[in-house]
Amino acid sequence: MALHFRKPVARRSSVIGALALVAVTGPLAACGSDDSGSDDGEDTSTAETTESETADASPSAEEGAASGDFKAPAWAKPTYETGKKLITIQAGDISVDVYDAGTAKAPKDGNVVDNKTKKPLIVKGDDLLFLNYVITNNGSSPVDLEEDDVEVDAKWDDWAYLGGMPGITDNELYTKFKINGGDESDMADFTKYDPDQPMPLAPGETVSYGTNFKNQPGHQLTLEVEVGDAEPVEKSVKVG
């Protein structure tokens, strides 16, 4: 799932409503936008590095979410460390810690359907995997997240479509897992944040948000991080 930082223009009611699948080619078609997991159909084969790691089985939602010792920007909500860390991806001065936040049953069908079968890729009752991304500036200078987009894309090893993997929009589940939603506007604390101002991430500061998609335990998950115009960094990890 490709997730983009860009300046929010208003508070949104949907936690991943901005992650619409708007440019998918091949067998995947979207019949709705707010449950989509991608906003592009880009080929991710240009990764800079590829590594493989193995993670333990994901925790359940009941195991809870713990807030780590993080320093969030003044404009952002607190950073949450949720579940078990799967992997850390370093892309220049930016690191992304990827956490397996847990699984939950899909409360409804997804809005993305297979173009041939016309069936939803996610149906009610499917297991959803929730990931939480903790993004840290490890450099010596601030990073403006409006100017230098941080894109995170996740795909299973047998993903058959050119677009990103779709998920389900459900505010209650994101709250349960202490995930700040799937869009940067959900990371912002609108009692403090002025949408007309930059989104600086100072050295040592972190922000966090997450996503969900259909769970496939025992499969390899490829994660790609791209910061600004730099070459993407790709790693993979076995989940479950």
UniProtKB/TrEMBL annotation:
It comes from the Bacteria. Residues 55-69 have a biased composition (Low complexity). Keywords: Signal. Transmembrane segments: none annotated. The keyword Signal applies. Residues 30-72, 193-212 are annotated as: Disordered. Residues 1-29 form the signal peptide. Residues 36-54 have a biased composition (Acidic residues). This is DUF4352 domain-containing protein.
